[in-house]
Amino acid sequence: MLILVLGDIHIPQRAADIPAKFRKLLVPGKIDRILCTGNLTDRATLDYLHSITPQVTTVRGEFDSATAALPTSLRITEGSFTFGLLNGHMLTANGDVDALAATARQIDVDV
User: Fold this and answer.
1) DSSP H/E element including 86
2) For residues 63 and 15, is the Cβ–Cβ distance under 8 A?
3) pTM for the whole thing?
4) Which helix (H) or strand (E) covers residue 15, if one does?
């Protein structure tokens, strides 16, 4: 199973589109599941991700609409791994490896 984890896409606010070199890798049928940590910021980008695979799971980032029907965090089990999905603005210790490991233990996830 191939899982793509991405986030902070910020289209169209910070970029007009997903870069062409990266888009070439996003072939329908190749990626089994997409996990997104938020900040898609527009519906068209979410629709594009769904064109790659129907298995798209995303949480709300700080730049996504506050009225978007997206949770702020999720736990997803895939195979023998449990993923914690949340946007970086939810972490007080962004980039601190020990604090990130502590957060993973608190929410009981592997990744």
Assistant:
1) strand 81-86
2) no
3) 0.85
4) none
The bridge status of strand 73-78 relative to strand 56-58 is unpaired
Residue type at position 10: H
Over residues 67-83, the pLDDT tens digits come to: 578 898 899 999 999 99
Q: Let me know: does 7 contact 37? Beta carbons within 8 Å.
A: yes
List, in order, residues 6 or more apart from 110 with CB less than 8 Å away. Answer: 81, 82, 83, 104
Q: Exposed, middle or buried by CB within 10 Å (0-12, 13-18, 19+), for 37?
A: buried
Q: Which amino acid is at 63?
A: F
β-strand partners of 77: 82
How does pLDDT run across 2-48, given as a tens digit for each residue?
999 998 888 888 888 888 998 899 989 999 999 999 888 888 888 99
Q: In terms of Cα–Cα distance, which of 92, 84, 100 is closest to 37?
A: 84
Quote the CA–CA distance of 43 and 39 in Å, as a whole number.
11
d(CA 30, CA 83): 21
3-state secondary structure of 20: helix
